[in-house]
């Protein structure tokens, strides 16, 4: 079949599939299955990425691959909580200032009754201190201060371990390294963090009529916008996009060579378009020709029913439909859980109930997913269905589509004020 065109090879592949995937009258390829079953199958083949050390700033946003505990108390010793005077017991409100400490200085003395030491915020305190008096609350005359209020022992002192005790868990394995966490690690002098490697993702748009978004399409051709869409979504999930390519030909041999080259470098290869069973659809015959183990093909949802997955060794191929809205929906339902699992995270996005603020007239049919914008208001979560819900439309992409509404099979029209099930799309760990 060297240099064969898809129209020539397609009937042969279909016949071979019918022969090779039947045992005792049952197909080995799971077709048109429920979404949750498809997710379970593909997650069973998702391997956690190896971990490696990165400098602290480069590790921001990555998933920590080991528990990190406090190596010592924080603060390590008693410190002043403000500028003022550290005083010992006694004194009847009048104390002699025997020393004035500047930032970074440590006192060599231990206070006795009636004595005080000038201190700065965060500075280590000398021994014998009972409290720190605010600088603005005392009267200073020569080497003596007067404080006319009663002293509460321990006031304005940060005791050792007030923030963290030695052995406290600072970061749990599987946590996203945020700016706040990084600052805590920096306070312990940690400049290298073990994080999971980003999954490497290659994206291949199929279809002889598809050209790069950088090209001017001829009559009958269209630019590839889905590749850019998925690249952005992959990066949002902390995946590493290693290549975005357009097949742009009908020669299945040429496409197969590109497919293999991309898969050599990637942990996941996502194909876009041609995932149905039409005579010109390329995804299934391409994957079958590669010798991959097809995990399932077709799921019971709309949009995105023409989606599938395959495994080649430890690598995954996820085939998504070419219609933009269907591509976006099926990516979030199939690829996002895999990307999360490969980085040591719980795979599934946050689900919640929200009140719909507008109506959606369609009803019935298979389980439907609708792009939406969710927000948390004073009374709880609400969600707005975005315009342009046809599979071929991209109007919803211009809005902040941070959620998908999950409507069950055979659902009635959605009315304003209805409670609906919502999947939050943007990473919950950011």
UniProtKB/TrEMBL annotation:
SUPFAM superfamilies: MoeA C-terminal domain-like (SSF63867), MoeA N-terminal region -like (SSF63882), Molybdenum cofactor biosynthesis proteins (SSF53218). It catalyses: adenylyl-molybdopterin + molybdate = Mo-molybdopterin + AMP + H(+). One of its GO terms (molecular function) is molybdopterin molybdotransferase activity. Pfam families: MoCF_biosynth (PF00994), MoeA_C (PF03454), MoeA_N (PF03453). It is an enzyme of class 2 (transferase). Belongs to the MoeA family. This is Molybdopterin molybdenumtransferase. It comes from Sporotomaculum syntrophicum. The gene is moeA_1. It comes from the Bacteria. Catalyzes the insertion of molybdate into adenylated molybdopterin with the concomitant release of AMP. The keyword Repeat does not apply. Its EC number is 2.10.1.1. Residues 202-341 form the MoaB/Mog domain. Keywords: Magnesium, Metal-binding, Molybdenum, Molybdenum cofactor biosynthesis, Transferase. GO terms for biological process: Mo-molybdopterin cofactor biosynthetic process.
């Amino acid at each position: 079949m060297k240099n064969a065109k898809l129209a020539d090879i397609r009937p042969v592949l279909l016949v071979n599939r019918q022969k090779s995937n039947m045992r005792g009258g049952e197909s080995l390829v799971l077709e048109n299955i429920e979404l949750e079953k498809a997710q379970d199958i593909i997650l069973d083949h998702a391997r956690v990425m190896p971990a490696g050390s990165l400098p602290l700033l480069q590790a921001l946003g990555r998933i920590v691959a080991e528990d990190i505990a406090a190596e010592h108390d924080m603060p390590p010793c008693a410190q002043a909580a403000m500028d003022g005077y550290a005083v010992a017991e006694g004194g009847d409100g009048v104390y002699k200032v025997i020393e004035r400490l500047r930032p970074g200085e440590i006192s060599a003395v231990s206070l006795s009754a009636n004595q005080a030491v000038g201190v700065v915020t965060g500075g280590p305190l000398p021994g014998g201190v009972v409290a720190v008096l605010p600088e603005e609350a005392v009267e200073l005359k020569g080497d003596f201060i007067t404080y006319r209020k009663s002293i509460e022992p321990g006031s304005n002192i940060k005791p050792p371990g007030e923030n963290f005790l030695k052995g406290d868990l600072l970061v749990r394995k599987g946590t996203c390294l945020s700016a706040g966490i990084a600052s805590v690690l920096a306070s312990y002098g940690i400049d290298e963090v073990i994080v999971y490697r980003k999954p490497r993702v290659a994206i291949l748009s199929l279809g002889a009529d598809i050209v790069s978004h950088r090209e001017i399409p001829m009559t009958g051709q269209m630019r590839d916008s889905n590749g850019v869409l998925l690249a952005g979504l992959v990066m949002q999930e902390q995946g590493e996009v290693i290549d975005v390519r357009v097949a742009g030909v009908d020669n299945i041999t040429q496409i197969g060579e590109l497919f293999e080259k991309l898969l050599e470098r990637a942990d996941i290869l996502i194909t876009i378009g041609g995932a149905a069973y039409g005579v010109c659809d390329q995804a299934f015959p391409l994957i079958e020709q590669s010798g991959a183990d097809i995990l399932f093909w077709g799921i019971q949802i709309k949009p995105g029913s023409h989606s599938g997955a395959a495994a080649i060794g430890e690598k995954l191929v996820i085939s998504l439909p070419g219609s933009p809205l269907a591509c976006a929906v099926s990516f979030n339902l199939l690829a996002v859980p895999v990307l999360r699992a490969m980085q040591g995270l719980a795979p599934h996005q946050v689900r919640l109930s929200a009140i719909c603020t507008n109506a959606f007239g369609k009803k019935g049919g298979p389980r439907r997913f609708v792009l939406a914008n969710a927000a948390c208001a004073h009374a709880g979560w609400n969600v707005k269905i975005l315009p342009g819900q046809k599979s071929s439309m991209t109007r919803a992409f211009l809005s902040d589509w941070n959620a998908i509404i999950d409507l069950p099979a055979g659902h009635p029209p959605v009315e304003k004020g209805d409670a609906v099930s919502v999947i939050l799309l943007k990473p919950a760990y950011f």
